[in-house]
Amino acid sequence: QITEALLKERDKQAKWNGIPLLLQKLYEHSHPNSDFSQCQSILKEISPLLSMEAMAFVTEDRKAAQESTFPNTYTFDLFGGVDLLVEILMRPTLITQKKKQKISDDLIKDCLSILYNTCICTEGVTRRLAERNDFVLFLFTLMTNKKTFLQTATLIEDILGVKKEMIQLDDIPNLASLVSSFDQQQLANFCRILAVTISELDTGSDDKHTLLAKNAQQKKNLGPSRAEINQATLLNIPGFIERLCKLATRKVSETTGTSSFLQELEEWYTWLDNALVLDALMRVANEEAEQSSTESSDESGLANTSTRTQLPQSMKIMHEIMYKLEVLYVLCVLLMGRQRNQVHKMIAEFKLIPGLNNLFDKLIWRKHSASALVLHGHNQNCDCSPDITLKIQFLRLLQSFSDHHENKYLLLNSQELNELSAISHKANIPEVDAVVNTDRSLVCDGKRGLLTRLLQVMKKEPAESSFRFWQARAVESFLRGTTSYADQIFLPCQHILYCIVDSECKSRDVLQSYFDLLGELMKFNIDAFKRFNKYINTDEKFQIFLNQINSSLVDSNMLVRCITLSLDRFENQSDAKVAEVLSECRLLSYMSQMSMRMSFLFRLINIIHVQTLTQENVSCLNTSLVILMLARRKEKLPFYLRTLQQMEYTEKYPGFILNNFHSLLRFWQQHYLNKDKDSTCLENSSCISFTYWKETVSILLSPDRTSPCAIVSYIDEAYMDIDRDFSEE
């Protein structure tokens, strides 16, 4: 509506670079009956003005970029450029005549490129596009075209990243046929988009959310979440999981030929999302080219030409790593979802685990070459390099694969399964059913299974490595569930003790994962306590070990629980070997002292409160309950409660522990007696029936002040503070 003369006059002063005039021309040439032939040349003029800014934004330091302004993209959006391009792209969908308008691929590419560059540089554009559901779903239909696939995928990924409401995959027109039209390369890129649609929105800080907040949220959401519905949608696409398993396990040599890969790199280069990665890839390529030319200086001309036509191996590897990352993430989320058993069955059938085992040395845990890919401004060990992210993603997959599932034995090879059987026979105990029932045609092949390979790299890991946490978590999840003597003996614990005691590990996360793993390795296993005593063979070493435990009970409470449960079982056995270990083992002697158990109980109750309970520290509450359940079995519950009362008086603060414990147990009832709550984990890890847990909590919460086992009997009226309601404030 503004006259051309006015626009021209203001243009120089406002530094608009002629963008409003170009947009006006574009508008005129894109009316409903136009053939768009002129549009392309107009876009070709606009495009470089915006892409230079976007390039500056991506390659500049982000902080500097935020301070600077991006006038061209801003002007483009201000004069309605974004809405006009959306209209041009969607025009064919609005026309009902038989003869549909066909927009050329190049025009679509240019529109998408410009939209993406504007999204990068101008605040709010991405969010505005995300609010247009019709446009978001329309973008998916553009993915059927190979030529515009990468541009579309990158724009969708950006838009879904800021979208407030998760899209429903069911709404995408012809999703199943869309997915089946993708080649493996496109499917891997599509996984990047899927990641946003199947993950719960706030899983990032899952352990940090209070359980009160989570429970309140669950009451609101009665049905399955969008992410869960999307997971189910994916599983119903024929052949989807099989193709993901193939992608995850294919070798680098099986990837497609050089030409299509080069072509894709070309697209990547014009496509900014991966510009940084590409710079690094190019650097690697040049280094390899220089290397090969210096090696054969006589035929240097020849060497150079061959390098130009052949893609360097490291580039292929990097490319494959970036694909596998996305695929493993999607598989990992599906393994943790509601359809877990169905996914497990499919993953086993399509031999994901043996396939990953074959890639372990060459790709997943490969040795870094001198020119390992590093992004600008990062170093090789920072957590954002693809190499490192792949390792962590792989370890997370192993963790969710083996957690409380009998398919975990697929992580071993046949020989290792025979070793487990031999350990059971030697100890004269029956084999675990899951070992006997494991289908030998689906297990790992080769000299070692995946679990054994993991243990090997774990031993070589530097003390300060961030992988230690994930490695320990993966091994620990293999041991979770019903305790198996053979599994514990198969996995030695000396290395874990070395890390806790000799390297005096300082990282809280790593320590926690090592304590949890040590607890699973030693629980109810007298030989493991014997091994412990052999390693921790001086008072000095034992003191370091205790200091590590006491430095943070939130981190070590699962180990304290394991020692307490084991001690209780050993004391009830009349076996000479057990009696010998009981008298010799420093750890068991320490825990058998009543004062030590009381000290742990007092501190465990004191470090948590209903308002601060999270997924991470609720285990402290369950550990304190285990100590009291074992006391109840020996009819010593009143003695324990009286001692807690005396400890309160010593601290000159009567009632503060017992009132808190009363509230915590009321919360426990609310939380664990919920019909959706899975109590088998508590039963399996403690070998105490859930009924006994419930009864003990009821007895402790009894309102009868004359009952010797009720908490209220040990709080003086004056200090009673137990009826407060806990709401989510």
**Poorly predicted ranges:** 266-280, 295-309, 369-382
Termini Cα gap: 53 Å
| CATH architecture grouping of the domain at 1-162 | Alpha Horseshoe
Question: Roughly what is the average pLDDT, rounded to an integer?
Answer: 83
- SS class: mainly alpha
Could you name the CATH class of the domain at 1-162? Mainly Alpha
> Based on CA inertia axes, which overall geometry fits?
elongated
Structure summary, number of beta strands: 0
Strand content: under 5%
| Main beta-sheet strand count, sense and barrel state | none
What gyration radius follows from the Cα positions, in whole Å? 31 Å
Which fold name is given in CATH as the topology of the domain at 1-162?
A: Leucine-rich Repeat Variant
Q: Classify the helix fraction into a percent range.
A: 55-70%
Tally of DSSP helical segments: 40
Pfam families: DUF3689
Keywords: Receptor
Protein name: Short transient receptor potential channel 4-associated protein
Organism: Tauraco erythrolophus
